[in-house]
């Protein structure tokens, strides 16, 4: 007979490149951690030297600034929060603490919802793409080339690109969710499932219940010699 745990029968434990969901979640958390750390370093360098990232009105096509101090501080706070969330997810997957993965999973859901809203906006208001491109500075790279594309083809290309992104993000969400269920089930489940050769399953009760049931039985009658 083959003994397997119940969480391995209902949830996938493998992800991309045939690695375990714990390994995939750790790699994903480290990748997000490095990315947000790089963004934080860029923001701090821009805050220390504002002239380096300052663009004139002629470069932006209007009386605008690349980023003022208020937006810079908000971006730095978001980057610090993301570093904390990614570090929690990485630590939770490594030490098998399921609760530490929840904030990162919630961030993934929020990010997926934002991208889905962008796709819905492009689908409902296709002319908004052209309006957005017209508002870009005249010297923006490939602005004229994009404006020359057929609006219908441009909408289809953008929707295809967003669909690929949503599919990839959905796969990463499923990887993190399976990691959470795997760790949560591994830490809390006390039930074993025996799979017999004829594909039938037998659930064994927890050890405490089996002990109580076994001690509750009446003792056998005393032996009487003939």
Automatic annotation (TrEMBL):
Give membrane topology per the record: Multi-pass membrane protein
Chief subcellular location equals membrane
Q: Where in the cell is it found?
A: Cell membrane; Cell projection; Endomembrane system; Endosome, Multivesicular body lumen
Q: Domain of life, per the record?
A: Eukaryota
Pfam families on file: Mtp (PF03821)
Q: Mind telling me which GO cellular component terms the entry cites? A: cell projection; lysosomal membrane; multivesicular body membrane; plasma membrane
Q: Which UniProt keywords apply?
A: Cell membrane, Cell projection, Endosome, Lysosome, Membrane, Transmembrane, Transmembrane helix, Transport, Ubl conjugation
InterPro entries, from UniProt?
LAPTM4/5, LAPTM_transporter
Residues crossing the lipid bilayer are 30-48, 72-94, 101-126, 146-168
PANTHER family named in the record: LYSOSOMAL-ASSOCIATED TRANSMEMBRANE PROTEIN, LYSOSOMAL-ASSOCIATED TRANSMEMBRANE PROTEIN 4B
The family annotation for this protein states: Belongs to the LAPTM4/LAPTM5 transporter family.
Q: How does it assemble?
A: Homooligomer; upon reaching the lysosomes. Interacts with MCOLN1. Interacts with NEDD4; may play a role in the lysosomal sorting of LAPTM4B; enhances HGS association with NEDD4; mediates inhibition of EGFR degradation. Interacts with PIP5K1C; promotes SNX5 association with LAPTM4B; kinase activity of PIP5K1C is required; interaction is regulated by phosphatidylinositol 4,5-bisphosphate generated by PIP5K1C. Interacts with HGS; promotes HGS ubiquitination. Interacts with SNX5.
What is the role of the protein in this entry?
Answer: Required for optimal lysosomal function. Blocks EGF-stimulated EGFR intraluminal sorting and degradation. Conversely by binding with the phosphatidylinositol 4,5-bisphosphate, regulates its PIP5K1C interaction, inhibits HGS ubiquitination and relieves LAPTM4B inhibition of EGFR degradation. Recruits SLC3A2 and SLC7A5 (the Leu transporter) to the lysosome, promoting entry of leucine and other essential amino acid (EAA) into the lysosome, stimulating activation of proton-transporting vacuolar (V)-ATPase protein pump (V-ATPase) and hence mTORC1 activation.
Q: What is this protein called?
A: Lysosomal-associated transmembrane protein 4B
């Amino acid at each position: 007979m083959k003994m397997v745990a119940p969480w391995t029968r209902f949830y996938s434990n493998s992800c991309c490149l045939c690695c375990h969901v714990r390994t995939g979640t750790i790699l994903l958390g480290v990748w997000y951690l490095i990315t947000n750390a790089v963004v934080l370093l860029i923001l701090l360098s821009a805050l220390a030297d504002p002239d380096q990232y300052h663009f004139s009105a002629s470069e932006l096509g209007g009386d605008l600034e690349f980023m003022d101090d208020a937006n810079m501080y908000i971006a730095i706070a978001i980057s610090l929060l993301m570093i904390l969330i990614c570090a929690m997810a990485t630590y939770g997957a490594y030490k098998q603490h399921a609760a530490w993965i929840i904030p990162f999973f919630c961030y993934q859901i929020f990010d997926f919802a934002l991208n889905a809203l962008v796709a819905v906006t492009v689908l409902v208001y296709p002319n908004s793409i052209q309006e957005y491109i017209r508002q870009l500075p005249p010297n923006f790279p490939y602005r004229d080339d994009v404006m020359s594309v057929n609006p219908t083809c441009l909408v289809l290309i953008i929707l295809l690109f967003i669909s690929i992104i949503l599919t990839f993000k959905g796969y990463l969400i499923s990887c993190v969710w399976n990691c959470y269920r795997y760790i949560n089930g591994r830490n809390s489940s006390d039930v074993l499932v025996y799979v017999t050769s004829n594909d039938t399953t037998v659930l064994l009760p927890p050890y405490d219940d089996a002990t109580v049931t076994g001690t509750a039985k009446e003792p056998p009658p005393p032996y009487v010699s003939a």
